[in-house]
Inverse folding.
């Protein structure tokens, strides 16, 4: 298959390359493209050194599938160009996710919908994607009434600039220098910032509403009650989420754990006596979402569970999901 | 008044001294006491330099009130000695908090109960104390049905050793050295650890259950449904909490904000257009708990609110509360 990555030099773009390598994706040609300032860069892959090229009509003409990982503006500009060149777009931006005609796909949950595409398939938000895997186990087996979530999100969710700013502030602090703030709205080192993406008129941020809108769409449950508080932390990689769920039928930690052990995309890390529970440090670079701290809810009793998850938002929450969508189209 | 501080060299003990100074507490004599390894140390105060002494019968004989800030073991050993010497104990440990005969007091909420003491008054857990102030405004005015909380807690909640470990890991990281882990169960720099205090048989940690037990006791609402997920972060000082509340009667962000503006112990920091919301960096060293991100709950609709708080857990959540209890006994 001929593949293109648009935004190949960004944090998600590089994860897509790594993912294609690790999963031995059957590639005939891999084309890497990016904005003007990265054109000409050389990226090493297991298929040889690849020179970053411009985003062009020819790129899409040569490609069967293009991964778009360069943000909404680039998707808006170039997705139509890919379409007229019969190149299927797997788009990681939020631009098309809420379009009823665009499938929003997590292959482990609703992979079949990918085939209803009209040239474009949307990849979910990373925070949504990580939580959806264990939540779907509850939805399928017990039915979900309510989801209440608080997140613990890494700076790399804001791209390379976010990661750089945390690294730089650590060095500045260690050298007794003043901390420079530019990417985030406040100092991120030693801080907690309850603000990711723009604020909406209802007081929630767009990041929080993405979790609501996307979970409802992927689960085909527009009625599902969900709320989220999204918080940025001085963590390099992997998002964590504290989740409280009310179910329609009775549920227990034991039943949920048994079902999780038979599920793909999730890894049960839940032995508190041994100090084992999900953390970003252990979840990073994993294909699965870590889940633990599973306990009966003190709020919803026999109809509720509480748990904690950590998942690599760049890999599991973005690149891997996109590559898994592409894998559906391997003949 | 003659005051003693037991554990005067610890992180909370030092905050109590600072608090007594800032509030011009009418002190005749201030006695500072600590464990053997700190005896003889000199601590500078606005009442002169004070030499740290042993915890003894004489200490309590000379004192009207003793603040205990050295943990449960010291409280267990020495609170009885204070009592037989007619010295009122204000205890910051969790040891006596759940004894129905011991008042558990947040002066802004249930100050009158302090006078029902039998020689000892318990100071609440810092995470509980911070949340209780805004929650009490909801309880008084709308009645609370359910509270769902996830916390973002600073390393200084684990004492000086916790703070030192984070500082040391920052320096080690900046110098490309291996990170030494000793106080926390995992590396804390760049990490999220959903584990504070010991695990209970119901799967919740003791820190989480403290929030449940203590809020129920302080609010005199043993039926109140509360759940908590308590998480340690690489933050130096001030705890934050993401809170979802279901109320008994209809509530709105506007009504809640108006009531908060008339309340003591809380500071409304809620102008998202200006990037203003609670953060530990702005909440530290404040007497008030910062509250913001107030919005109608997507889960509980007109009967629910969601908000975010940050409060200095050493000062507002511990020392200030203890000093305010002592102030009730100034003639």
């Amino acid at each position: 298959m001929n593949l293109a990555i648009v935004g190949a030099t960004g944090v998600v773009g590089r994860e897509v390359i790594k993912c294609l390598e690790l999963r031995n994706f059957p590639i005939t040609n891999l084309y890497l493209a990016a904005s003007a300032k990265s054109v000409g860069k050389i990226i090493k892959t297991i298929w040889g050194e690849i020179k970053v090229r411009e985003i062009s009509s020819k790129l899409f003409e040569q490609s069967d599938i293009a991964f778009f990982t360069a943000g909404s503006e680039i998707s808006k500009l170039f997705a139509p160009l890919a379409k007229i060149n019969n190149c299927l777009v797997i788009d990681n931006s939020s631009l098309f996710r809420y379009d009823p005609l665009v499938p929003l796909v997590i292959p482990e949950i609703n992979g079949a919908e990918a085939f209803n595409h009209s040239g474009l398939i949307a990849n979910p938000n990373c925070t949504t994607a990580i939580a959806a895997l264990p939540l779907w186990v509850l939805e399928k087996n017990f039915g979900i009434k309510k989801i209440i979530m608080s997140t613990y999100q890494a700076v790399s969710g804001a791209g390379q600039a976010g990661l750089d700013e945390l690294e730089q502030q650590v060095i500045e602090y260690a050298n007794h220098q003043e901390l420079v703030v530019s990417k985030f709205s406040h100092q991120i080192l030693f801080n907690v910032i309850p603000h990711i993406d723009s604020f909406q008129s209802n007081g929630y941020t767009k990041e929080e509403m993405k979790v609501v809108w996307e979970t409802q769409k992927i689960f085909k449950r527009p009625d599902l009650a969900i709320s989220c508080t999204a918080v940025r932390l001085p963590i390099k990689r992997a998002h964590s989420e504290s989740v409280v769920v009310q179910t329609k039928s009775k549920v227990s930690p034991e039943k949920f754990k048994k079902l999780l052990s038979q599920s793909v995309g999730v890894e049960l890390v839940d032995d508190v006596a041994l100090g084992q529970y999900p953390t970003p440090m252990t979840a990073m670079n994993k294909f699965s979402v870590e889940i633990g701290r599973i306990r009966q809810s003190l709020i919803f009793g026999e109809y509720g569970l509480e748990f904690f998850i950590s998942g690599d938002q760049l890999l599991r929450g973005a690149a891997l999901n996109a590559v898994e969508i592409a894998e559906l189209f391997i003949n």
Summary: Chain A touches chain B through 55 residues (CB under 8 Å). The first strand of chain A starts at residue 2 and ends at 6.
